[in-house]
Amino acid sequence: MAVRPCESPGPAPATRPDGSVTWEPQVRHLYVHVPFCAHKCEYCAFYSEVPRGDLMERYVKALGRELERVAADLRPRTIFFGGGTPSLLPLRLWERLLRQMDRLHLLGAAEFTIECNPATVSADKARLFRDFGVNRVSLGVQSLDEALLERLGRIHSRRQVFESWETLRAAGFEHLNLDLMFAIPGQTLAVWRATLREALALGSEHLSTYEVIYEEDTPLFAQLRAGRFEVDEDLACAMYDELLEAAAAAGYRQYEVANFARHDGPSETPLPTHACRHNVNYWRGGSFYGLGPSATSYVRGVRTRNAANTLRYCAALETGRRAVEFREALPPLARAGEAAAFGVRMVRGWPFADFTRLTGFDLRREWAEDLAWLVARGLGEISPEAFRLTRRGLRFADLAAERLLRPAPPD
Ligand code: SF4
């Protein structure tokens, strides 16, 4: 099979398994967007659609072509299939896709994650995933309260969460993540506590949590604007505090604003054993390929984005073109600003040496005023080795990020 390199050669920033920054000849991280959902959730602004006709089949073929185009520049240490609902793809299409990845020498990643909706997990799919080296599943639970699941427009029930959990464990998955959501309209502190208690009792290796955000063009945003409910910021803060305490009490180590993982063994390491290395690479400003409709790639300082339309995406690849519809090469300071803003989301902050190795800038000098501003407000702290956000600062990480960005001047 002919394989064409996509980008000019040259080292690409990536992260080592311990989260530190390194440079590699090929890109080491791959994201694939599967743009199908059985039903659109009330809060969701991701690109996805209800699959019709043979669209899934066409998508898998087009994705295969896109994989061929980047394979020579890709040796994945982490792979992440997100969406959308990747687990909605039928078994035979998954098998075709995974076989093609095998032919292109793209399997064998140390961390290979597939996002699954609890309503679409089956023993057959779980077995197939395991057979092709998938070793991590991220289960989109969001809540264990039936009324809230309905409120959010989720297609699964709480019973299906426990059933899919059993199915995945029985198939041999030893690295499972649960996605949970808080500050949902109508969610009380007591309901959040109950969900946390039950979810933590399952004993997943990883926990990702999201505060509801109101994205324009979502039903939830329209309801907020129409005054059907109000945002209670104090309650959201109380829920976040509850989360930190419950996760710590259950033995999880927080390593990012919203992410918690178990750590095996007594030794202190920069990252807990079960941290998601794929996401760490994003936060550390590393290169990655993003394939599929609407997916973003960031390779050697150039950001590209694919068409956010499955038909356009397929049509481009069927005629031998990539489906890239946006491309920008950020100037060095803007790149460094993004790295600073994303990197401080991690609990260990930015070690100054790593930041300089990645960007060429000294965080202490270029961002001196911003760091002082954050420290003066109790949001950040500086040691001889690193800058990091405090517990309060992590709660307001978006505010800190805004200070650290250095947007590129308009053309
Ligand atoms: S399942 Fe996920 S991607 Fe699909 S609509 Fe719901 S939140 Fe969005």
Structural class: alpha/beta
CATH superfamily of the largest domain: tm_1862 like domain
Q: Give the termini distance in whole angstroms.
A: 41 Å
The CATH architecture term of the largest domain is: Alpha-Beta Horseshoe
The biggest beta sheet reads:
9 strands, mixed
The CATH top-level class label of the largest domain: Alpha Beta
Task: Kindly identify the CATH topology of the largest domain.
Answer: pyruvate-formate lyase- activating enzyme
Q: Counting H and I runs of at least 4 residues, what is the number of helices? A: 16
The set of bound ligands, ions and cofactors reads: iron/sulfur cluster
Keywords, separated by commas or semicolons:
single chain, 411 residues, alpha/beta, 2 domains, 9-stranded mixed sheet, 16 helices, disordered N terminus, binds iron/sulfur cluster
Tell me what the structure shows:
The chain is of the alpha/beta class and 411 residues long. It contains 16 helices and 17 strands. It has 2 domains: 272 residues, pyruvate-formate lyase- activating enzyme (Alpha-Beta Horseshoe), CATH 3.80.30.20; 56 residues, no CATH class. It is 38% helix and 21% strand. A 9-stranded mixed beta sheet has the order 9-10-8-7-6-5-4-3-11, sandwiched between helices. Strands 12-13-14 form a 3-stranded antiparallel beta sheet, with no helix packed on it. Strand 4, helix 2 and strand 5 form a beta-alpha-beta unit. The longest helix is centred in the middle third of the chain and has 17 residues. The radius of gyration is 21 Å and the shape is globular. The N terminus is likely disordered. Bound molecules: iron/sulfur cluster. Iron/sulfur cluster binds next to loops.
